[in-house]
Design brief:
alpha/beta; Nitrilase/N-carbamoyl-D-aminoacid amidohydrolase; about 25% strand; globular
């Protein structure tokens, strides 16, 4: 498969048609380059709050509600584009009221046959806990697709190895991200690369980039697209299949061979994925030594 992962700038939108044009252009560009799987970033849907004006877009709680109300219309647009271009799309995540006490951070996944499903974020960052008050959503899922088995770890989730382990059967783990500072970008990137190493799979990271001064929530964003694999047999020695340029909007592309994933899992110089359970034997009893 060919993966396209986005470095996506947030725009001020004066009309729904403007959003349709923007998203349609992005999808058409990636599909035109032969991409099979398109990855948009975490909280990329926050730009939809601008459709309700500056007062709503600039107010945290009001913007959350505004975006949530528009996500079904956004889903219909994504479904149409996925079918039209015969691609799989992980849409930009959004705060969504989904029957929980508070909104969850949800990314919708669209297939070229018109089907859709979603992945909710599992572990909230400090700002999502307070002041956003975003709730953990439903469980992790493993999507069985024509491209292989695909999982999603939304941003902070990628920094937790047990969540990655729960997706050990995935060929590709998608990591949509929203990070304000360079340090945040690198935390998520290191997490994504670590999960690729541990589970001997491919991870694909998408980022919001640039300023959005109209927003209290996502006013400054740092990142770039990247696709990573285990630095082992059949993959680059750095583990980096492709990376974009910092804060430069656009797609980053990488060709991914599922046979190479199967091969490194079976014949790699190291076998992190299959040796994972050996850790349990070694940590059953931790001995504390007092050093004199």
């Amino acid at each position: 498969m060919k993966i396209a992962t986005a470095a996506y700038p947030l725009d001020w939108l004066d009309s729904w048609a403007q959003y349709e044009d923007k998203l349609s252009s992005w999808v058409a560009e990636a599909a035109g380059k032969g991409a099979d799987l398109l990855v948009f970033p975490e909280y990329g849907a926050m730009e939809l709050s601008t459709l309700d004006g500056a007062e709503v877009a600039g107010n945290l709680e009001a913007s959350i509600q505004s975006v949530s109300e528009k996500m079904e219309d956004s889903a219909a647009l994504h479904q149409r584009l996925a079918v039209e271009h015969a691609v799989h799309i992980l849409g930009a995540s959004a705060p969504v009221h989904a029957g929980f006490a508070r909104p969850v951070n949800r990314a919708e996944f669209y297939a070229p046959n018109g089907q859709r499903n979603h992945q909710d974020k599992q572990i909230m960052t400090m700002f999502e806990r307070d002041p956003w008050d975003i709730a953990p959503g439903g469980p992790l899922k493993l999507f069985d697709t024509a491209l292989g088995k695909i999982g999603v770890l939304i941003c902070y989730d990628s920094e937790y190895p047990l969540l990655g382990r729960a997706l050990a059967e995935a060929d590709v783990i998608l990591v949509p991200s929203c990070t304000e500072a360079l340090s945040g970008y690198w935390r998520v990137r290191i997490g994504a690369m670590s999960r690729a190493l541990e589970q001997q799979c491919v991870t694909a990271m998408a980022s919001i980039v640039g300023p959005a001064a109209w927003s209290e929530a996502v006013d400054m964003n740092t990142g770039m697209g990247g696709v990573f694999g285990p630095p082992d047999t059949g993959f680059p020695g750095t583990g980096v299949l492709a990376e974009g340029s910092l804060n430069q909007p656009g797609w980053t592309y990488a060709e991914v061979d599922r046979a190479a994933i199967a091969h490194v899992r079976a014949e790699g110089v190291v076998r992190n994925r299959s040796h994972w359970e050996e850790q349990e034997k070694r940590i059953e009893q931790v001995i504390n030594h007092k050093m004199l």
